[in-house]
Design a protein that fits this description.
This protein has about 220 residues and is an alpha/beta fold. It has helices at about 5-15, 35-45, 60-65, 80-90, 155-170, 175-195; strands at about 20-25, 50, 100-105, 110-120, 125-130, 150-155, 200-205. Helix 5 packs across helix 6 (about 175-195).
């Protein structure tokens, strides 16, 4: 199992103790382990924390085809960034309001699924993870202001690429197809994400010695 650093757990636990709704963003390039890190932190803080991923706001494959962006799926303009920012604002203002339903992304389907995540007002800490939480253009520019903090998951590039390659192959791409996709889509996105990492509130170093399970390649 992935082990969340003690200082991360303690930092998040202090927010929970405040009694106020807090939103924490986890950002990193593709393959860094964002989903697994966020879920491990939520598990460590259960039941006071919940994960709401950015990936639920992938545009549908039919819409990507209509826009001519299917070959760049995963790039910033292949998400509903404004919709994501709007959801985060709703979550922050939830107070004692009704359940909020968020979308989730199902890799087996390669599509988002609406209403898949139920968010209750009594959950004090919401963790949201994704690639573009620190971008400063388009709808992404609205995201950072809604979050209390953003943590950058800093992973050795060799480890990250190995995880990413394994993920692409697990979901149906050949090794050659996966390497081509990584070179033409994932790595350009990685450069864009890394360019804004200085805007993060905390860097969480990660290297090949970090205990992981096979599920780590899912984020």
């Amino acid at each position: 199992m992935m082990t969340v650093p003690a200082h991360c757990r303690e930092r998040a636990a202090r927010w929970i103790a405040s009694g106020q709704r807090k939103l924490l963003g986890i950002v990193a390039p593709p393959g860094a382990g964002k989903s697994s890190f966020a879920q491990a932190l939520a598990t460590a803080l259960a039941p006071a924390a919940q994960v709401v991923p950015m990936d639920g706001f992938h545009l549908a494959n039919t819409e990507l085809a209509r826009l001519g962006r299917a070959e760049r799926k995963g790039a910033p303009d292949t998400f509903d960034a404004f919709g994501y920012a709007h959801l985060l604002r709703r979550i922050r203002a939830q107070a004692d309001g009704p359940t909020i339903y968020a979308p989730d992304y199902r890799r087996a389907l390669e599509e988002g699924v609406a209403g898949a995540i139920a968010i209750e007002a009594h959950t004090p800490l919401i963790l949201t993870e994704g690639n573009y939480l620190l971008l400063e253009d388009g709808g992404w520019a609205e995201v950072r202001g809604v979050l209390d903090e953003v943590w950058y998951l800093d992973v050795d590039d060799t480890v990250r690429r190995e995880r990413l390659l394994a993920r692409h192959m697990r979901f149906g791409r050949s090794r050659e197809q996966a390497l081509t996709w990584m070179a033409h889509t994932d790595e350009p996105n990685t450069l864009r994400i890394a360019a804004n990492r200085h805007l993060a509130d905390l860097w969480v170093p990660w290297d090949e010695t970090t205990p992981i399970t096979g599920s780590l390649a899912t984020s």
